[in-house]
Structures are given as structure tokens and as C-alpha cells.
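Weekly modeling sync, notes
Attendees: S.R. (lead), two postdocs, one rotation student

Agenda item 3: backlog of single-chain predictions. S.R. asked that every request posted to the team notebook include the full sequence so nobody has to chase files. The rotation student volunteered to paste the first one in as an example of the format we agreed on. Action items at the bottom.

Example entry:
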Amino acid sequence: MIVCLRVDERLIHGQVAMTWTKELKLNGLVVASDEAASNEIQKMTLKMAVPEGIKCIIKSVEDVTTILDDPRSESMRLMVLVPTVKDAVTLCKTLQKILKMVNIGKCR
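Predicted structure, as returned to the notebook:
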């Protein structure tokens, strides 16, 4: 289940890692970013910010829709992070039936 879709150009940072994961009782963070998905150094850096015990997936916006449509994701509490409002709108159109909340953070 997608507990929250958050728009934040920083993607995973202290507030997300330490506060949001605990408050929302998350099992996983899903980064939907074409830029991050194609940059190995950025992926490695983002994954370093994820607390122990929280799964992290970093994929392109298009690939994320396939992952979140998978029945296995229904049993998890996930936060999807996107860098832009445009990416959020794309995902909202596709995933509107399973989104619980959209949160706007620091945007470009």
C-alpha cells in the first residue's frame, strides 16, 4: 500500500529517513526519478540515507508504476518519493486508486 507520495527534490534526506519512516510505520521507500535511476553514484548515496530495516527501490517513473502495481507491494507500507510535481502528476494519474496521501516538500 502506498501510504504517501511525497514531492521533494532532495528525495531521501534526514526528515524522510528519520521522521516519516517512523511516523508512517513504513517498510519501504520507493524513489521514482529518471535522473536518479540512471546515476549509480546518486543511487548509492540515496541508499546510504535509508535507515536499517527499510527497503529502498530506485527506478524511473515508468518502471515504478510496474513495481507498485505488483500484488506483493500491497502488503507493504510504502512512501514514494519524486523530485518534481510533474512526476507526481504522472504517478497520480496511474496510481490514483491506491494512493492515500500526497505531500509537497521542497520542489523545483
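Discussion: group reviewed the output briefly. The radius of gyration is 12 Å.
Action items: rotation student to repeat for the remaining queue; S.R. to check formatting next week.
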